Amino acid sequence: MSDDAAKSLTRETFRTAIDIAAPPDRVFDYFVRPELLVRWMGDFAKLEAHDGGLFAVDINGVIQGVR
Predict the structure, then answer these.
(1) What are the backbone dihedrals phi and psi of residue 55, each rounded to the nearest 5 degrees, phi first?
(2) Coil, helix or strand at residue 59
(3) pTM listed for this prediction
(4) Which of 67, 65, 37 is CA-nearest to residue 54?
(5) Are 22 and 28 in contact (CB under 8 A)?
(6) What is each CA distance from 38 to 12, 13, 49, in whole angstroms?
């Protein structure tokens, strides 16, 4: 994803929930490391895991994300 595409993402707060039958320390990296996130969701990810960071995932050619 280009930096321009990342900048065009919404700045709205996005919240969702999912139940995963594993302890948080076992799955945490799969939500903050792009190469691990795409193992189970999406084709490409750009993640900045900090307050005000970026979560963008390309799922079948459609970029879903928030900044």
Answers:
(1) -135, 105
(2) strand
(3) 0.63
(4) 67
(5) no
(6) 23, 22, 15
**Residue 66 in contact with residue 9, Cβ under 8 Å?**
yes
Beta sheet of 62-66, edge-to-edge order: 44-48, 54-59, 62-66
Match 């939500």 to its residue by tokens.
31
- Give tens-digit pLDDT for 29-64: 998 999 999 998 888 999 998 988 888 888 887 777
Query: Nearest to residue 14, comparing CAs of 62, 55, 49, 59?
Result: 55
Residue 56 burial class via C-beta count within 10 angstroms: exposed 0-12, middle 13-18, buried 19 and up: buried
What are the φ and ψ backbone dihedral angles of 48, each rounded to 5 degrees? -130, 100
